[in-house]
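Notes from hallway chat w/ T.B., transcribed later so I don't forget. T.B. wanted the structure written out for a chain they're using in a teaching module, and asked if we could keep both sequence and structure tokens in one place. Agreed to drop them here.
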Amino acid sequence: MSNAKKTRRKVVPAESVCEVFDLHVKYHPREKLNKSKRDLIRNRLRDGYSVDDLAMAILGIHNTPHNLGENERRTKYLGLHVSMRSENVDRFIEYGEEVFERRKAAALAKSGRAADGTKRVASHRKVEPSASQREQELEEFRRYRKESGV
């Protein structure tokens, strides 16, 4: 046996894989988790992406016009294998964050808050949110993502 060091692969919790796949199933209800899909998700998690990153990638691919069929072939490219491909993940995360920010701004506009999350006061000056308000907004984001399946 050789003295070469064996590299250990990063252990990825099964719950994380299932959480990412559950987000994908919101868009594709008939999909079943098999070994190849589990490996795709696990490999991206091993690459250092978080569950939230991969959730944004899934949101991004489902809001990219090209992947929705606005292309030369009029073909939709929405498979998990496309969104979890290593060369595509960063691009879809960026697009997913843009979509999320637009949705957040629209929701804040409905509630009367400024797009950056600050409240307007009578003198029309901005008041920066406190740490507890930021934590509350993060919790609202998580709740929104859980409820809407994003």
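Follow-up for T.B.: Residues 14-148 form one domain. Might be a good example for the class.
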